[in-house]
Amino acid sequence: MAAGSGRLGRGLATEGGRAALAFGFEDLGLDRVVSICEPDNVSSSRVMHRLGMSFDRATVDPLHGVPLCIYRLEQAEWEAAQ
To answer: Where do the domains of the chain lie?
Structure first.
């Protein structure tokens, strides 16, 4: 295994998330971006918080019955943080 491969916590998800948010808000002109994860996925929740996203609501996947957490970020919130 190459050095560094398989390691978590290198910030790649946060970096990718920032790029996706910039594309959505700046290039596509979206008003809001939402992100969904399972409640047990603590790492994903942390990334969403780092990106400035706020917990919106808990729900259940209608097809699989799996609990889900919905996070959101409004364009105005994104712009204020830039």
So the answer is: 30-81
